[in-house]
């Protein structure tokens, strides 16, 4: 039995469940989409990966110390490095939702970061180190600047055996594509998790937008009363 045929079998079983009976009328077009899926309509999304690394930086800070009428200013420059953290490699195209699921299900600890977070991590670490140094010298920190920063990876990429199940089909001339669950592999065991979520219909989106707009106007009126 192929992987895609297993997905369709799992989907057919789910469509008979009480959980789906409570959802099927929320979006009839989506229900039609799900109930007509075949193996040819199933594809796989990008799998998640993580890599360990440390953020290096150089920071400058200045502080002041006052004794009587005399104020002394001191500047320090420090090289600093964070502890090891998990990052999402640039080659990984998995969605945030998929990354979060993998990070939890595959036994990682703490949290993960993107490359765009490197500067903020360097600034946080650098400011802590600079201020600590100034305080130890009895100076009150006044200014801080991150001069340089970079991330150095300390491991190979760990690719998780987890794939979003992507369904693609054209219904009434409209191309539809949704993630309907996940395929996972742990210790040689396969897990197919089917959890389709009916999207809001255009009418429901309009109603919700109207309710939110009315709430905002109501709040604004209350503030000015």
In short:
With 225 residues, the protein is α+β, with helices and mostly antiparallel strands. 34% of the residues lie in helices and 37% in strands.
Helix/strand layout:
Blueprint: H1 3-14, H2 18-21, H3 28-35, E1 42-44, E2 49-67, E3 70-81, E4 85-87, H4 96-105, E5 112-113, H5 118-136, E6 140-153, E7 158-159, E8 162-171, E9 174-186, E10 189-194, H6 202-224
Parallel strand pairs: 4-5
Antiparallel strand pairs: 1-8, 2-3, 2-4, 2-6, 2-7, 8-9, 9-10
Any overview of this molecule?
This protein has helices at residues 3-14, 18-21, 28-35, 96-105, 118-136, 202-224; strands spanning 42-44, 49-67, 70-81, 85-87, 112-113, 140-153, 158-159, 162-171, 174-186, 189-194. The protein has 225 residues and is α+β, with helices and mostly antiparallel strands. The strands form 2 sheets. Strands 2, 3, 4, 5, 6 and 7 form a 6-stranded mixed beta sheet that branches. A 4-stranded antiparallel beta sheet has the order 1-8-9-10. A hairpin with a 2-residue loop joins strand 2 (49-67) and strand 3. The longest helix is centred in the C-terminal third of the chain and has 23 residues, at 202-224. The protein is elongated, with a radius of gyration of 27 Å. The model is unreliable at 201-221 (pLDDT under 50).
Order of helices and strands: HHHEEEEHEHEEEEEH
Q: pLDDT below 50 for ≥5 consecutive residues: which ranges?
A: 201-221
Principal-axis shape equals elongated
Distance between the termini: 68 Å
The assigned structural class equals alpha+beta
Number of helices: 6
Helicity range: 25-40%
What would the average pLDDT be, to the nearest integer?
87
Specify Rg, calculated over alpha carbons.
27 Å
Quick one: biggest sheet?
6 strands, mixed
How large a portion of the residues is in β-strands, by DSSP E?
35-45%
Total strands = 10
């Amino acid at each position: 039995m192929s992987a895609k045929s297993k997905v369709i079998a799992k989907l057919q079983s789910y469509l008979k469940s009480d959980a789906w009976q409570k959802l099927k009328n929320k979006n009839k077009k989506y229900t039609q989409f799900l109930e007509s899926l075949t193996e040819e309509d199933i594809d796989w999304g990008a799998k998640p990966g993580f890599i360990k690394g440390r953020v290096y930086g150089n920071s400058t800070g200045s502080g002041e110390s006052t004794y009587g009428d005399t104020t002394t200013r001191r500047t320090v420059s420090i090289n600093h490095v964070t502890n090891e953290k998990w990052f999402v490699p640039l080659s990984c195209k998995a969605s945030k939702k998929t990354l979060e699921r993998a990070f939890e299900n595959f036994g990682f600890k703490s949290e993960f970061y993107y490359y765009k977070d490197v500067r903020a991590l360097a600034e946080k670490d650098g400011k802590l180190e600079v201020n600590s140094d100034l305080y130890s010298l009895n100076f009150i920190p006044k200014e801080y600047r991150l001069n340089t920063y970079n991330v150095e990876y300390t491991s190979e990429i760990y690719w998780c055996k987890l794939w979003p199940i992507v369904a693609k089909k054209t219904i009434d001339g409209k191309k539809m594509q949704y993630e309907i669950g996940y395929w996972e592999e742990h210790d040689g065991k396969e897990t197919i998790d089917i959890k389709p979520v009916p999207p809001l219909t255009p009418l429901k989106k309009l109603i919700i937008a109207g309710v939110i707009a009315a709430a905002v106007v109501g709040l604004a009126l209350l503030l000015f009363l």
